[in-house]
Structure formats: C-alpha cells, structure tokens
Specification:
It is a single chain. This protein has about 100 residues and is mainly alpha-helical. It has 4 helices and no strands. It has one domain. α2 crosses α4 and α3 packs antiparallel against α4. The chain is elongated. The N and C termini lie far apart (about 60 Å). About 5% of the residues are buried.
Length: about 100
C-alpha cells in the first residue's frame, strides 16, 4: 500500500512540475528563450544530480531502468544547453572573430 501511495505522490509531483514548467515557459517572449536557457544551465546539472541519486536509490529493475533513462536524458539536456549557449554566443561575434 505504501509503495502505491509513493508512486502516485511522485506522479502527482511530476505532473504538477510539468504543467508549471509549461505555463512559465509559454509566457516567455520568443526573443528571451535562448538567454533564458543559457542562464539556467545550472538547473540542468541539478536535474542530472537528482537523476543519479534516484538511480542510486533504485531497488527494482524497473526503477533502475527509469533512473538510467533519467540520467541519460538529463545529461543530454545539460549538454544541449551548453551547445545552444555556444551557438548563441557565436552569433554575436563579428565575422573577423569567428573560427
């Protein structure tokens, strides 16, 4: 009974976070999306650490698989944030400064 309750609480928190994130990002003007994402790269690192902690605490095979997928997706998200930042900074260089 406790495991089912924990699952529903975790699902509820996830759904609430997804909805809140969508509502916040949807209200950001298009011109601010890239600076917003480059400024929040540290959040991606926190998500990655959280996914690693969840993977380390997993006791079942399903939990380990979900934790592993979380680590992979969080790492891709963090790397993607830095790639976008690099591309954004490259756009602001003059033609003589580019590689």
């Amino acid at each position: 009974m406790g495991t089912e309750l924990d699952f529903f609480i975790a699902l509820y928190i996830f759904m609430l976070a997804a909805f809140t994130g969508y509502e916040i990002i949807a209200r950001v003007p298009v011109i601010l999306h890239t600076p917003l994402m480059s400024g929040s790269n540290f959040v991606h690192g926190i998500v990655l650490v959280g996914a690693m902690i969840a993977l380390g605490g997993a006791e079942s095979t399903v939990g380990r698989v979900i934790g592993f997928l979380g680590v992979i997706l969080a790492a891709g998200n963090a790397v993607g944030g830095y790639v976008v930042t690099e591309r954004m900074l490259e756009m602001f260089k003059t033609s003589g400064e580019r590689k």
